[in-house]
Amino acid sequence: MNREFPEKLTVILLLAAVCLCIFGAATGEMEDVFIKAVNICMECIGLG
Amino acid sequence: MAKHLRKIIQAGWGLLSNAYVRGFLPGQPFIYSGALKHFCVPGMNCYSCPGALGACPVGALQAVLAGRQRKFPAYVLGYLAAVGLLAGRFICGWLCLFGLIQELLYKIPLPKITIPERVDRPLRYLKYAVLLVLVVGLPLLYRSEYGAGDPFFCKYLCPVGTLEAGVPLVLMNDMLRPALGWLFRWKMLLLIVCILASILIYRPFCKYICPLGAFYSLFRKMSLVRMHVDTDACINCGACSKICGMRVDPHLAPNSAECIRCGECMRVCPVNALSFARAAGKQEKAAVH
Ligand code: SF4
Ligand code: SF4
Ligand code: SF4
């Protein structure tokens, strides 16, 4: 029996994911991402 | 038009998310540093690309895990889970520049390679190991004597950073060249292998290596974008399996981890048995039959 994952549950999980995201943003994680993203990343380009 | 719609969207998104023209002007190495860099793009797109307007989610995840404070990456994980739940690997088929680059390379008219199934199947699990070890495990656990972590995937494996950031920045800036060492040569070698492999094999990086594709595939059965087979309509002609570059049999396994939701199979199905449809709609239909 191949039952589909209920769409309502997906929406609930989606809301939980958005809350997690907002929580992370509120604890300053967006700044960590920002600082990493606006400086040339030596590891990405293969220098360090 | 419908045939080219996906390519137009892939290219349009790639251009839009790398539209910082000033970064491509010769002179000092310079990348965009405005407020949009607080946000991640949904696909693989190096944040050190001179044109990038957003952050790479895989790079961002490693940056938080490798930070001195060892924070739980709630913002990045929440974002990735939300994208996964909304669209899953639909992102791979439609909104990832590196996916498009591999598809275009595959169009180069040279003989193509079909990896034997007994090699192909186990190799597909490699991307989950890359996700677990290089993106999560080592950045979280390793600390140098000075307490600094390392983004292992970006540093040792990712060909996206080399192509989108390393090559243009090094070409445009003389001052970076003296700093090039074994790591740059190693990453260039990986990039060349990736490019050659992409000419011969359809999306090899997506199939075997990409940790972001691996993460999104975890949501294949849950995401709002799902594929459905109308088993009453399907005549088992196999046209869908034949066209699928990811080697999925969509009429048998419509929500395979390997399906990038490109929709090519839907286009060729002679009886329109395949569709992106909502789970609830399908359940109602199943109840009537
Ligand atoms: S598997 Fe990775 S590189 Fe390929 S399209 Fe998906 S996110 Fe992009
Ligand atoms: S192309 Fe359509 S009819 Fe043919 S096997 Fe696939 S789903 Fe069934
Ligand atoms: S099964 Fe269809 S939608 Fe999925 S990757 Fe193959 S052709 Fe694309």
List keywords for this structure.
heterodimer; A: 48 residues; mainly alpha; 3 helices; B: 289 residues; Alpha-Beta Plaits; two-stranded antiparallel ribbon; 2 strands; 2% strand; disordered C terminus; binds iron/sulfur cluster
Structure description:
The complex is a heterodimer of chains A (48) and B (289). By secondary structure, chain A is mainly alpha-helical. Chain A has one domain. Chain A has three helices and no strands. Chain A is elongated, with a radius of gyration of 18 Å. Chain A starts with 6 loop residues before the first helix and ends with a helix. The mean pLDDT of chain A is 93. With 289 residues, chain B is mainly alpha-helical. Chain B folds into two domains: 2-20 and 30-217, no CATH class; 225-289, Alpha-Beta Plaits. Chain B is built from 15 helices and two strands. Chain B has helices at 2-16, 57-65, 74-86, 90-94, 97-106, 117-123, 126-141, 152-156, 159-172, 182-200, 204-209, 211-217, 239-243, 264-268, 279-288; strands at residues 227-229, 274-276. Chain B has a two-stranded antiparallel ribbon. In chain B, helix 7 crosses helix 12 and helix 9 (159-172) crosses helix 10 (182-200). The model of chain B is unreliable at 280-289 (pLDDT under 50). At the A-B interface, helix 1, helix 2 and helix 3 of A face helix 2, helix 3, helix 9, helix 10 and helix 15 of B. The structure holds iron/sulfur cluster (3 copies). Residues 229, 234-240, 251, 269, 271, 273-274 of chain B line the site of one iron/sulfur cluster (SF4).
Write the topology of this structure.
The complex is a heterodimer of chains A (48) and B (289).
Chain A: H1 7-26, H2 29-38, H3 42-45
Chain B: H1 2-16, H2 57-65, H3 74-86, H4 90-94, H5 97-106, H6 117-123, H7 126-141, H8 152-156, H9 159-172, H10 182-200, H11 204-209, H12 211-217, E1 227-229, H13 239-243, H14 264-268, E2 274-276, H15 279-288
Antiparallel strand pairs in B: 1-2
Helix pairs in contact in B: 2-7, 5-10, 7-12, 9-10
Bound molecules: iron/sulfur cluster (3 copies).
